[in-house]
């Protein structure tokens, strides 16, 4: 059976905050490409299957889905809560929150006495009011930090794979402009390329090369959206040999040219 692909976050958007749909119809296994998803439920019951694991829905609870994660719902009681969809680039000013994403369990319990849902109520209201993206990014940063703190309380230990992947992501964040090959990162981590790819596959179902490309793409999008630099200047800053190679890379990742992306992002 082919896994369906749902696109709930449009190409030009980096964030969407919505209420959970009040329906109990089972969904078919599907995945969401290109963005992260945090789901927080204050009411509901049933089952949430993520990959090959089935989780009972016992609110208050949270779920995290990474890009490309396959999941489906089977509710027995109408759910209430929030769904936050976001692309990693929105957290460019919050590297700690970025790193937290890859240490999230798929499911975590939220304490009953927590004021966490009050924060989500406010975040949703600010999103619906159409506030500036920098303002909303700060709220998302806070939600991720508080969620991570809650999730860590649910965990007894951190798997070594998570630690190794976090170390790789940190190195990529520090060196992505000058180092673009997987071999160099594997050497710095004292790992084989095969082992590094296994770690990445286990953590986010992507290759090490895809992780590096994604980090370069995030920076390219930030420069296109938040600076007036032309394509040649951005290509130089990201250490591409020339602007045509940068355009080819960007279009291969997004299907858009850098200038097309800039016009859509800026509006």
Structure characterization notes:
Residues 166-264 form the HTH araC/xylS-type domain. Keywords: DNA-binding, Transcription, Transcription regulation. This protein has two domains: 4-154, Regulatory protein AraC (Jelly Rolls), CATH 2.60.120.280; 160-266, Homeodomain-like (Arc Repressor Mutant, subunit A, Orthogonal Bundle), CATH 1.10.10. Helix 8 (231-237) crosses helix 9. The protein has 267 residues and is of the alpha+beta class. The mean pLDDT is 86. It has helices at 95-101, 116-128, 133-154, 160-175, 182-188, 193-204, 208-226, 231-237, 243-254, 258-266; strands at 4-6, 15-19, 30-32, 36-50, 53-57, 61-65, 70-86, 107-109.
CATH topology of the largest domain: Jelly Rolls
**In whole angstroms, how far apart are the ends?**
39 Å
Name given to the CATH architecture of the largest domain: Sandwich
- The radius of gyration is 19 Å
Keywords:
267 residues, alpha+beta, Jelly Rolls, 2 domains, 8-stranded mixed sheet, 21% strand, globular, transcription regulation, Homeodomain-like_sf, DNA-binding
Secondary-structure topology with pairs:
Blueprint lengths: L3 E3 L8 E5 L10 E3 L3 E15 L2 E5 L3 E5 L4 E17 L8 H7 L5 E3 L6 H13 L4 H22 L5 H16 L6 H7 L4 H12 L3 H19 L4 H7 L5 H12 L3 H9 L1
Parallel strand pairs: 1-3
Antiparallel strand pairs: 2-7, 3-7, 4-5, 4-6, 4-7, 6-8
Helix pairs in contact: 1-3, 2-3, 4-6, 7-10, 8-9
Keywords: DNA-binding, Transcription, Transcription regulation
Protein name: AraC family transcriptional regulator
InterPro entries: AraC-bd (IPR003313), Homeodomain-like_sf (IPR009057), HTH_AraC (IPR018060), RmlC-like_jellyroll (IPR014710), RmlC_Cupin_sf (IPR011051)
């Amino acid at each position: 059976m082919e896994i369906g692909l749902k696109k709930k976050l449009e190409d030009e958007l980096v964030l969407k905050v919505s209420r959970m749909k009040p329906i109990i119809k089972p969904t078919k296994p599907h995945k969401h490409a290109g963005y992260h998803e945090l789901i927080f439920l204050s009411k509901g019951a049933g089952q949430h299957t993520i990959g090959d694991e089935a989780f009972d829905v016992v609110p208050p609870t949270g779920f995290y889905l990474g890009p490309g994660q396959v999941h489906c719902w089977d509710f027995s009681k109408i759910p209430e809560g929030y769904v936050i969809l976001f692309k990693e680039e929105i957290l460019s000013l919050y590297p700690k929150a970025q790193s937290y994403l890859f240490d999230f369990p798929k499911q975590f319990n939220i304490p009953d006495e927590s004021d966490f849902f009050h924060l989500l109520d406010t975040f949703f209201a600010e999103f619906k009011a159409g506030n500036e993206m920098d303002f909303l990014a700060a709220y998302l940063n806070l939600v991720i930090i508080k969620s991570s703190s809650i999730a860590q309380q649910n965990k007894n230990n951190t798997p070594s794979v998570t630690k190794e992947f976090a170390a790789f992501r940190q190195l990529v964040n520090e060196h992505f402009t000058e180092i673009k090959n997987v071999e160099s990162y594997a050497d710095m981590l004292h790992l084989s390329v095969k082992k590094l790819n296994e770690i990445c596959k286990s953590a986010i179902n992507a290759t090490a090369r895809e992780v590096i490309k994604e980090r370069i793409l995030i920076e390219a999008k930030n420069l296109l959206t938040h600076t007036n630099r032309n394509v040649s200047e951005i290509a130089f800053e990201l250490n591409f040999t020339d602007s045509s190679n940068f355009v080819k890379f960007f279009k291969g990742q997004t299907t858009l040219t850098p200038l097309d992306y800039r016009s859509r992002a800026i509006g």
